[in-house]
Amino acid sequence: MDGSIAPPPETKNRGPTLSTMHEIERILREAEEPLSLNEIKRRMSAKAVRHSTVRKVIDEFKRLGFVAEGSKGAIWSLNLSPDFWSKGRAEML
Question: Which domain of life is it from (predicted)?
Fold first, then answer.
């Protein structure tokens, strides 16, 4: 692989809405520790969100490199700080 982001997988039916993705992003950005999918669902304004919908959003964020997921849950990992991406630090990645 050349370091680029993998293309999105084929989907047979509708995916999560953009507003759902934005809400999950906000929840993850505000969290100070990893969150389980159930905790993400609990914090969402819509109380009838399917587990599979949250899973699809987390998988998409992982594909894009925005989220890291481990045994304790998912955490926002995208660092937008200009200092982090300054010459030298970016080369270490």
Answer: Archaea
- Summarised one tens digit per residue, pLDDT across range 1-43 is 466 788 888 888 888 999 999 999 999 999 999 999 999 999 9
* Structure token digits, residue 30: 């505000």
**3-state secondary structure (DSSP) of residue 38:** helix
Query: 65: phi > 0 → left, psi -120 to 50 → alpha, else beta; which?
Result: left
What's the fold here for domain 18-76?
Arc Repressor Mutant, subunit A (1.10.10)
CA gyration radius, the chain: 15
Phi, psi (deg, nearest 5) at residue 62: -65, -40
pTM exceeds 0.90: no
